[in-house]
Amino acid sequence: MTAILNPRVLSALLLGILVGTLGIGLTLGPALQAGVAASANYQRPFPMPHQYWARSDEFYVFASGGQQGGMYVYGVPSMKYLSEIPIFAEDQAWGWTTEDEHVRKMLTNPWTGEVATRGDTHHPSASKTDAKYDGRWVFVNDKQFARVARIDLDIFRTGQILWAPNTTGGGHGFNVSPDTKLAVLNLEHEQYPDENIRRHLGLALDPVKGPYAAGINGIRIADDGTMSNGWQIWGPWQFDMARIGWGKSNGWIVTTSYNTERATDAVGMFKQDHDYLFFWNIASIEKALAEKKYVTSKQAPDVPVISWKDVEVYVTPIPLNPHGLDISPTGKYVLTSGKATTLIVAVDFEKVLQGIKEQKFTGEDFGVKVLDPDFVRASTMDLGMGATHIEFDDQGYFYVGFFVDSDIKKVPLGEPYTTKHGKTPWQVTDVLPAHFSVGHLAVPGGDTAQPYGKYVISMNKLAKDSFLPHGPLVAENHELYDIQGERALLVDQMALGPETHYSQILPVSLVAPKVQRAYTQAKAEPGAKPAVEYDYAKKEVRVTMTVVRSFFTPGAITVPQGWKVKYHLISQETALDMTHGFAIDGYNVSVSMDPGEVRDVEVVADKPGVYWFYCNWFCSELHMEMRGRMIVVPESEWPPAQETRLAP
Ligand code: CUK
Ligand code: CUA
Ligand code: CA
Fold first, then answer.
1. Residue 250's CB: how many other CB atoms inside 10 A?
2. Distance (Å, rounded) from C-alpha 446 to C-alpha 86?
3. How far apart are CA 429 and CA 312, in angstroms?
4. Closest CA to 416 of 407, 408, 425
5. Protein residue with its CA nearest to atom 3 in ligand 1
6. Ligand 1, from 501, 503, 504: best to mutate by most atoms within 8 Å of Cβ?
7. Is the CB of 201 inside a 6 Å radius of any atom of ligand 2?
8. Would the pLDDT of 526 be above 70?
C-alpha cells in the first residue's frame, strides 16, 4: 500500500488538520485585485433600472446553511442574497416556528415524539431527469438528526422531512439519483444498533469500547416528490460521502469511508495509510430485498435492513481519509481526495467494471473484494495540501478546492474529454486564489451530466479580514469566479452567514417560471368565515381568523385561563409581497403569513390578563393599528356569558 502514499504526506499537515491550527496568509492576492479591476463584464448601469437584478441573473444558488439549519438562496452573477429556506431549525423571520402545527409535525421524531429544532444541513441535491437538473425540487440532509428534507421550488419552502430509522444521527453523505427515484443518506457516525440488526450482521460490537457498525439509507422518492424509507444496508464501517452514478457508472452507488480503522478517536482514524472507495450495485440491493434477505428493527418494522454480505459490493483503496467524492459529467471518472495527503485519485469506472469481470482483486476485507488500485485508477495526481471537494465544467475540466493551500486548481480530465480541451490531462492549468480555505465549490450543473460552466463559486470556510470587522464570529465568504476564459477571474465576493457546505446552482429558466407569488391555501377555503368555538370537554377554544390589511377578524377573543387556543389563521391577501405577522405579547408566539397562506397556531393561555396580538410585518399605513386582543379570564371567573360571540 505504501506505493500509493506520497512523500509529501507531512506529519505536520496531519497534525495541523487534527488540531485545526494551520496558519493562513492574510494578504489579498494580486490576482484578486487584478480580477476585480479587469471585470469589465461586471460594470453595472446606474441608476439601476427597475427589475435589473431580476432580469440579469442567470442562476439561482441553493446553499446549505450548515449549523444555521436551513438553506440560503442568492442570484448569480449578482451575488444578491434573496432568501433563507428554513428547514431543520426554527427561524421566525422566515416563517418557520413550531407553534405552527404543520412545522412542528415535520420536526417531530416519528418514533420518539421529540421535537428537534436544531439541525446541520450539508448536501443539497437537486431533482434530475436523465442526470440533468429539472427544477422540481432540491433535497438536503441534516447531519445531526439524520433527516432529509424536500424543498418545493414553487414556494421555496420545506414540503417534507423524512427521518432515517435505527440511528441516533450523523447522516452526512447525501445524493439524489439521476432519475430522482432514489436518494442515499450515509451514516457517518457509527452506531450500536438494535439487537435484531446486530444479530443479523454477526459482528463483534461493543456499546462502550466499539467498534460499531453503520450503514446507508436508501430513500425512495415517488413521482410527486414524497420520500419514504426504502431500505438500509449495514456493514462494519462508517460511510461518508455518497454519489449515485449515471452514464458509465449507471446503476451503482459510490461512497467513501474515512474510518475503515473503525476507531473512536481522531488519531485512530488516521492510523492506516488508506481508506476505501465503495461501489454498490443497486440491482443487487433490489435482489436481496426480493429474496427477503433482511431483518427489521423494533423501531422501524417496515424498513428492511440488509447485511453488506448479501449485496454486491467492492472497494478500492484511497489514500488517507477521503473527503471529496465526485463523478465527471459522462459518469466515467470518480474523483476522490484524501484529507491528509496531497493526492487526488481519479478512478475510471470502465476499469472498475472490467476489473470486477476480470477479477483484478488484491485481497478481501470483511469479505469484500478489494479492486487493484493500479488497475482501476486513471490517475493519481499530486496537487496540493488539504484537498476538499471537486466539481466539473462543460469544457472537460475539473476544479478541486484546497483548505490548506487556500485555492482552487483547474485540471483537464482524460478521455473522452481531451478532444474538448486539447490539453495534457491530469495536470494543473490554472490556480484560483481563495480568501480563505475552500470547502466545497460549485459550478452550475457541475455535479450532473450537463454542466453549464461559466462560473465557479468557492464556499470558503474562512473570511478572516475580508470584510468590515464584526466581532469574533466572522461571516463566510462566497467567491464568484468567471471561468469562461483560459484563466479564471475572481469577479465578486459575498459575506454570508454560517456555514455553507455544498450548493446546487440551477438555471433561472428552470426555476423562476414556476415560482408562486401567493399561496393557494386560502383559496382552498373560499367560504371560510371568522368563528370562535368553545369546547368544554377538551378545554379548547378554536378560532378561525381572517387576516387582511389591516384587520384580524375576530379582533378580540375571550378564553378561560389554562385552556388551549387553536388559531386557524387565513391570510386573504393576494397582493405580491404583502406578508403579515401574528405575534402575541407575552406569549412565545410569532408566525408570519405570506399572501394566501394558512397557519394553525396553538397556544396554551396559561397567563391571565389582556394580551394584544399584533402584526409584526410592516404592511401598510395602518400596520400598527393591525392588532387585537386575547383576553384570558381566570377559570373561576369564567361564566359562559364571557364567550366571544360573533355577529352571524
Ligand atoms: S462536507 Cu462540509 S466542506 Cu459535509 Cu461536504 Cu466538506
Ligand atoms: Cu399586517 Cu403589518
Ligand atoms: Ca482512515
1. 15
2. 25
3. 39
4. 425
5. 439
6. 501
7. no
8. yes
Best CA proximity match to 549, nearest among 593, 585, 589, 584: 593
Grid cell in block for residue 32 = 484578486
Q: Which of 577, 579, 578, 602 is nearest to 592 (CA)?
A: 579
Q: Residue 73: beta bridge partners?
A: 62, 83
307 and 296 in contact (C-beta within 8 Å)?
A: no
User: Measured between alpha carbons, how far is 250 from 281 in angstroms, rounded to an integer?
Assistant: 9
* Residues of the chain above pLDDT 90, percent: 90
pLDDT at position 28 is 39
Residue 274 CA to ligand 3 center (angstroms) comes to 6
Cα of 370 from ligand 3 centre, angstroms: 16
Q: Encode pLDDT of 207-226 as tens digits.
A: 999 999 999 999 999 999 99
Strand 540-548 to 564-571 pairing = parallel
Q: Which contacts (CB < 8 Å, 24+ apart) does range 95-104 have?
A: 95/591, 95/592, 95/594, 96/70, 96/158, 97/589, 97/590, 97/591, 99/588, 99/589, 99/590, 99/591, 99/601, 99/602, 99/603, 100/591, 100/599, 100/600, 100/601, 101/600, 101/601, 101/602, 102/600
Instruction: Show Cβ contacts of residue 604 under 8 Å, excluding neighbours closer than 6 positions.
Output: 562, 563, 564, 565
Q: Is the CB of 583 inside a 6 Å radius of any atom of ligand 2?
A: no
Residue in this structure with the C-alpha cell 474510518, named with its chain if needed: 259
Question: Residue 430's pLDDT band (boundaries 50, 70, 90)?
Answer: very high
**Model-level pTM greater than 0.90?**
yes
Domains, the chain, ordered by start: 7-514 (2.130.10.10), 522-642 (2.60.40.420)
464, exposed or middle or buried, with CB in 10 Å at 0-12, 13-18, 19+? Answer: middle
Ligand 1 atom 1, closest CA: 501
- Count of C-beta atoms within a 10 Å radius of residue 384: 23
What type of residue sits at position 63? A
Residues 129, 180: contact at Cβ < 8 Å? yes
Q: Please give the number of the atom of ligand 1 that sits closest to the Cα of 323.
A: 6
Which atom number of ligand 1 is nearest to the Cα of residue 439? Answer: 3
Q: What CA–CA distances, in Å, run from 41 to 235, 329, 482? A: 52, 28, 10
Distance separating alpha carbons of residues 222 and 227, to the nearest angstrom: 6
Q: Is the CB of 623 under 6 A from ligand 2?
A: yes
From the CA atom positions of the chain, what is the Rg in Å? 27
